[in-house]
Write a structure and sequence with these properties.
Elements (H helix, E strand, L loop, with lengths): L1 H16 L17 E7 L20 E5 L7 H6 L4 E3 L19 E5 L3 E5 L4 E5 L5 E5 L18 E8 L5 E5 L5 H8 L17 E6 L5 E6 L26 E7 L14 H15 L8 E6 L6 H13 L20 E6 L5 H28 L7 H20 L1
Parallel strand pairs: 1-3, 2-4, 9-11, 9-12, 12-13, 13-14
Antiparallel strand pairs: 1-8, 2-7, 5-6, 5-8, 10-11
This protein binds guanosine-5'-triphosphate (GTP) and magnesium ion.
The site of magnesium ion (MG) has 5 residues, from helix 3.
C-alpha cells in the first residue's frame, strides 16, 4: 500500500514537472528607437458646388514638428502603433456654406535632431531646432471652377524618420573602457555600469553643469570593436550619433581589451588605432572633428609605465605604427587635441576632463567664428536663423493654401 502511494506521488510530481512550461517570452519592449518608417496621407479636398460657384475646403496636411521634450522615436510609436497618419478631408461646399472649411492638419511630434527622408532615401528636411516643422503630405485642393468642382486627392507617401542625437561631445571607445563611468562622473546621470562588454546598448545623453551655469551635453555610445564596419559587436549602427557632435572624447582602457579568452588581446595603443580605423571606415569626415584622448583607469597597477608607453606611441605616430600589425593601420591618422590620464573613479581627474572639454569646445568655436569672419560668411545666430526659416515656411504654407 505504501509503495503504491509513493509511486502515485512520484507520478503526480512527474506529470507536474513535464507540464509545458508557461510561455516566458514577453512581447518586445522598445527602449530606444532611432529610425522609424511611417505612412502619411493628406486629406482629400472637399467637393465644390457648381450651381453656386462654391469651392470645397482644402484637405488637411500631415506635418512633422520637432519637440525638445521628446527624447526618442519610441514616443511616436506609443502614440500611434500603426504608424499611419491621415489628415481630415476638406468640407464640401453646400448651399448654405459656400466655402467649405479646410480639413484639420495632423501633427507628428518628434525629437529634435530628426531628419526626414522619403522612401527612396531622399532628404526632405532636418529638424534640428525645437519647433521646426515640415509638411510631409499636402492635402488635396478643394473643388473649384479650375478643377470642375471636384476635390483633389491628398498626397500619400511613406517617409523615414531618422534620429541623430545632438550632443556637444561624444564618448568613443571599446566596450568596458569606462565610458559610462566617465559620463556618470561628469554629469548627474546614472547610466548602467558593469565589468562586462556591451553594457551600454543604446545611446544616452548626460549634461555637464559648470559653476557659471554653462551646460555641455555628452553622449555615451555603445562600445565599438574591430570589425564594427562588418557589423561585429554593435556594428556601426550608433556611429551616426557622433555626426552632429562637436568634439570626440576617446576613452581608452590603459590595460587594453579582450572580448573573450577565445579572441585576441588588444593593447591600449592597438585599440586607439582600431577606433581610428573604424571611424574612418564609417565616415572619414568624423576624423576631422576635434578629439581628446583620455587614457582611463590610471588607478590600476603599473599605470605610470603603461601610460608613458602609450603616450609616446601616440605622440610618435606614424613612426610607432611599425609596433603593430599592418591590418590595424588607419589610412588617415586622427590628430588629438589633447591627451589626458584619468581615472573615472577619481573626481579630481574627472574635473580635469570637464575643464579641458570646455576649453577645447570654446577654442574651436572661436576658431570657426574667425574663419567665417575672414571669409565674409555671416552666420546669423541660430534663433534669428530659426525664426527666419519658420517665417519663410509659414509664408510658403499660406501660399499653398491660397
Ligand atoms: N579601476 C577602475 N575601474 C574603472 C574605471 N572606469 C571604469 N571602471 C570599471 O570598468 C568597468 C566598465 O565600465 P563601464 O563604464 O561600464 O564601461 P563602458 O565603456 O561604458 O562599457 P560598455 O558600455 O560595455 O561599452 C566597470 O566595472 C567600471 O567600474 C577606472 O577609472 N578605474
Ligand atoms: Mg557603457
Amino acid at each position: 500500500m505504501m509503495t503504491l502511494t509513493k509511486n502515485f506521488l512520484i507520478l503526480t510530481l512527474r506529470s507536474f514537472s513535464t507540464k509545458a512550461a508557461p510561455k516566458t517570452t514577453k512581447p518586445r519592449k522598445y527602449t530606444f528607437i532611432d529610425s522609424l518608417r511611417v505612412h502619411v496621407r493628406g486629406g482629400a479636398g472637399g467637393q465644390g458646388f457648381q450651381k453656386f460657384g462654391g469651392s470645397g475646403g482644402e484637405g488637411g496636411c500631415v506635418y512633422i514638428k520637432a519637440n525638445k521634450d521628446i527624447n526618442n522615436l519610441k514616443t511616436v510609436i506609443e502614440k500611434n502603433p500603426k504608424k499611419r497618419y491621415a489628415a481630415a478631408v476638406g468640407q464640401d461646399s453646400r448651399r448654405h456654406w459656400i466655402l467649405g472649411n479646410p480639413g484639420e492638419d495632423v501633427c507628428i511630434e518628434v525629437p529634435v535632431g530628426v531628419s526626414v527622408k522619403d522612401e527612396h532615401g531622399k532628404e526632405m528636411a532636418d529638424l534640428d531646432e525645437d519647433g521646426e516643422e515640415v509638411v510631409v503630405a499636402k492635402g488635396g485642393k478643394g473643388g473649384t471652377i479650375e478643377n470642375s468642382f471636384l476635390g483633389q486627392k491628398g498626397e500619400a507617401r511613406t517617409i523615414v524618420l531618422d534620429l541623430k542625437l545632438i550632443a556637444d561631445v561624444a564618448l568613443v571607445g571599446f566596450p568596458n573602457a569606462g565610458k559610462s563611468t566617465t559620463l556618470a562622473a561628469l554629469s548627474r546621470t546614472s547610466p548602467k555600469i558593469a565589468a562586462y562588454p556591451f553594457t551600454t546598448i543604446q545611446p544616452y545623453i548626460g549634461t555637464m553643469q559648470y559653476p557659471d551655469m554653462r551646460q555641455i551635453t555628452v553622449a555615451d555610445l555603445p562600445g565599438l570593436i574591430e570589425g564594427a564596419h562588418v557589423n561585429k559587436g554593435m556594428g556601426h549602427k550608433f556611429l551616426k550619433h557622433i555626426e552632429r557632435t562637436k568634439l570626440l572624447l576617446f576613452i581608452v582602457d590603459i590595460d587594453g581589451f579582450q572580448l573573450h579568452t577565445r579572441y585576441a588581446y588588444r593593447t591600449a595603443f592597438e585599440t586607439i588605432l582600431l577606433l581610428n580605423k573604424e571611424l574612418e571606415l564609417y565616415n572619414r569626415d568624423v576624423l576631422e572633428k576635434p578629439a581628446i584622448l583620455a587614457l582611463n583607469k590610471i588607478d590600476l597597477d603599473q599605470a605610470k609605465e603603461k601610460t608613458r608607453t602609450i603616450i609616446s606611441q601616440v605622440k610618435h605616430l606614424p613612426e610607432s605604427l611599425s609596433d603593430v600589425d599592418p591590418e590595424f593601420h588607419p589610412k588617415q591618422i586622427i590628430k588629438f587635441d589633447g591627451i589626458l590620464q584619468m581615472s573615472a573613479k577619481n573626481q579630481d581627474s574627472v574635473e580635469m576632463v570637464k575643464d579641458l572639454i570646455r576649453k577645447r569646445l570654446d577654442y574651436h568655436h572661436e576658431k570657426e567664428r574667425r574663419l567665417n569672419e575672414q571669409h565674409g560668411i555671416v552666420v546669423p545666430d541660430s534663433l534669428k536663423n530659426f525664426q527666419e526659416r519658420l517665417r519663410l515656411k509659414n509664408e510658403q504654407r499660406k501660399a499653398r493654401l491660397l
